[in-house]
Amino acid sequence: MMTPLSKAQLDLAVDFNRRRHYPQDMWVRVQQHVGSDDDGVPGRQTASRVAEFQAKNGLPVDGKVGEQTLAAMGITRTKFDRIHRFPGDSAFFYLGQMAVDADGAPNAYNPDNTGIDALANAGKPGRWWGLATDEDGEPFIQRADDPYPGYYVSTTALCDHRYPRHDPRGYVDATQIPYIVLPGNLKSLIDVGPLRKGDLAAVCLIDKRDNIVFSIYADVGPRWVPDHEPGEGSVALAQALGHDPYVEGRIRRGIVRGVFYLIFPGTGTGQPLPIDEIRKRGSKAFEAWGGQTRLTEAIRATGTEVPTTVR
């Protein structure tokens, strides 16, 4: 069967495939599936055979080995490979979604489950991971002089130890501070170097790259596993990106795709920071890393075509 792609289209497919950063053994499996030379290097022959496979199976025909084509081949990734770093850098980056986190907001959760987030997202009796609890595991209730009396005290992994654990002021308020959430198994996925909670990050939508939102690493979330779409941030971060996460007053809507996260290990103080300091430190780290000039290169390194028009 003749390849349905032109030379220019093949070149685009080869460029895309080489920037996917799949492990070599995975490329061998793809090549064996489509009948090209199984050398583990995604060249023009591989892209051509992939395009033929796509045409036979009713897929978009572009020769690019993305998630849909892998699924049609029955191939899954053997490891999480969505985190990237340029040689010699400590900063690392990834592209994904944004699940929206309300943790740390004093109005996040209450006993009647009418806070801005569903109470199930904070855990359950006997295992509350998102609430401050006493020695018996019972959640603290905000007092009359707290921001939301009668509500639970919602926590973040980053906290100000000057305050007692039942004081909402000790946590990073998701509705006020743009923060990112990283997985509990991050150290098993990449060498994080001097990373610690409180370090700074730069976040943007790939089609709105002129709107860089500087953020702080303030919470720890679920493990990332193969084929997991990474990415989580606070209510304030989502809003700063131009996204409204609320539906009828509750957190119900995340960002499905196209969110770029860049993390700068060793740039924080290990403590919560006011928003002006987050912006100051984040901007300094971003410019030292290479700023907007390097941003496009980093997005391409995730295997994603960079939109030519910034909305």
Provide a short characterization of the protein structure.
The chain is α+β, with helices and mostly antiparallel strands and 311 residues long. It is 24% helix and 18% strand.
Care to describe what's here?
This protein is α+β, with helices and mostly antiparallel strands and about 300 residues long. The chain folds into three domains: about 5-75, no CATH class; about 90-100 and about 175-300, Barwin-like endoglucanases (Beta Barrel), CATH 2.40.40.20; about 105-170, no CATH class. The protein has seven helices and ten strands. It has helices spanning about 5-20, 25-35, 45-55, 65-75, 235-240, 275-290, 290-300, and strands at about 90-100, 125, 125-130, 180-185, 200-205, 210-220, 230-235, 245, 250, 255-265. The strands form three sheets. A six-stranded mixed sheet has the order 4-6-5-10-1-7. A two-stranded antiparallel sheet has the order 2-3. A two-stranded antiparallel sheet has the order 8-9. The longest helix has 15 residues, at about 275-290. The two termini are about 40 Å apart. The mean pLDDT is about 90.
